[in-house]
């Protein structure tokens, strides 16, 4: 039985999304950041409203967006979660009235102190720190930074470089949710439904 939430992030192909909705996952992430190879296009967004998400909840991913950017993005989705990866303040994250997740860039164990700044977040996403790169590094950080206290008192989303080779180790951390992105791609930005199925089966078995 599945006892961990699963998010597949960086979906930008409507056919992949349609197939994904028949797989046992909890969240599908859509990136609204022009510098990402996974940035959603207007063509994709115009088709997304016709997709039956079933039990999957959409997550809109932003990096220092304007208020208008957020409202425009979420207009394509029903009850989305907002995921912020930049320097957004707690007040900004809260201002839209939607559930939100805040990314914490894990440069060291001390990075966890940032969690206190977002006590209203529905989840904290821990991802790899890399200078001048916001998310999407494809690399894992040192998971030993994550304390049992942090895991016990927060919904922790483990992100960054999770793939079929290291997912068993990721599961041992026992986060609330695993965020899978580049680890289920055939090439940067191109999701592979076979890899997604294999990953999900490995997590849920």
CATH class: Alpha Beta
Approximate strand percentage:
15-25%
Question: Main sheet: which strands, in order across?
Answer: 1-2-3-4-5-6-7-8
What CATH calls the topology is TIM Barrel
Helix content: 25-40%
Separation of the first and last Cα atoms: 7 Å
Average of per-residue pLDDT values: 94
Q: What spatial form do the alpha-carbon principal axes imply? A: globular
Structural class: alpha/beta
In CATH terms, the superfamily is Aldolase class I
> Which value, in Å, is the CA radius of gyration?
16 Å
Give the total of domains: 1
Tally of DSSP β-strands: 10
Question: Which keywords apply here?
Answer:
205 residues; TIM Barrel; single chain; eight-stranded parallel barrel; two-stranded antiparallel ribbon
Structure explained in plain terms:
- The protein has 205 residues and is an alpha/beta fold.
- It has one domain (5-204): Alpha-Beta Barrel (TIM Barrel), CATH 3.20.20.
- Helix content is 25%, strand content 22%.
- It has 7 helices and 10 strands.
- It has helices spanning 14-20, 42-48, 67-74, 90-94, 148-153, 167-173, 193-204; strands at 5-8, 27-32, 57-62, 81-84, 100-106, 123-128, 156-158, 177-180, 185-187, 190-191.
- It has an 8-stranded parallel beta barrel with strand order 1-2-3-4-5-6-7-8. Strands 9-10 form a two-stranded antiparallel sheet.
- Helix 1 links the parallel strand 1 (5-8) and strand 2 (27-32).
- The longest helix is centred in the last third of the chain and has 12 residues, at 193-204.
């Amino acid at each position: 039985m599945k006892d961990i939430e699963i998010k597949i992030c960086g979906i930008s192909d409507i056919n992949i999304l349609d197939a994904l909705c028949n797989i046992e996952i909890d969240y599908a992430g859509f990136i609204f950041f022009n510098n990402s190879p996974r940035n959603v296009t207007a063509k994709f967004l115009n088709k997304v409203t016709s997709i039956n998400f079933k039990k999957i909840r959409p997550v809109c991913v932003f990096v220092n967006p304007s208020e208008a950017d957020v409202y425009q993005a979420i207009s394509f989705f029903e009850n989305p979660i907002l995921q912020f990866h930049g320097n957004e303040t707690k007040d900004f994250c809260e201002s839209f009235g939607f559930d939100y997740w805040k990314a914490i860039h894990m440069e060291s164990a001390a990075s966890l102190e940032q969690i206190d700044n977002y006590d209203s977040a529905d989840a904290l996403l821990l991802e790899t720190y890399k200078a001048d790169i916001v998310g999407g590094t494809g690399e894992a950080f040192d998971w030993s930074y994550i304390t049992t206290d942090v895991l016990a008192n927060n919904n922790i989303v483990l992100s960054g470089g999770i793939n079929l080779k290291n997912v068993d180790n990721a599961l041992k951390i026992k986060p609330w949710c695993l965020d899978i992105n580049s680890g289920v791609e055939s090439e940067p930005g191109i999701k592979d439904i076979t890899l997604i199925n294999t990953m999900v089966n490995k997590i849920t078995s």
